[in-house]
Amino acid sequence: MLKMKTTCELCAGQLRNDGEAFICSYECTYCPACTVDLAACPNCAGELVRRPTRTTGVAEITRRAPGRLLRKVRGSQP
Ligand SMILES: [Zn+2]
Ligand SMILES: [Zn+2]
To answer: 19 in the Ramachandran plot: left (φ > 0), alpha (ψ -120 to 50) or beta?
Structure first.
């Protein structure tokens, strides 16, 4: 599961789970304002892409699709 960081690593500005943010493959996270000045991630030089928003909590997923999250957590176990 993607770790939803709540602050920009460059300016320490607050990021919302359902707001705009940019991440690299290592999940370094930046706000849109900082990303404008970045050609790549300053930490790893990796590509920065728009972070998918997360509008629900784990409890919400379990309520909407019971079993879906459990299957993912349990993996190959019966
Ligand atoms: Zn920032
Ligand atoms: Zn990075």
So the answer is: beta
Q: Report the candidate in 30, 27, 24, 25 with the shortest Cα–Cα distance to residue 11.
A: 30
How remote is the CA of residue 29 from the centroid of ligand 2, in Å? 8
In tens, the pLDDT along 24-67 reads 999 999 999 999 999 999 999 999 999 999 888 878 878 888 77
Which residues line ion ligand 1, judged by CB < 5 Å?
8, 10-11, 13, 31, 34
Distance from residue 75's CA to the centre of ligand 1 (Å): 36
Distance CA 54, CA 24 (A): 17
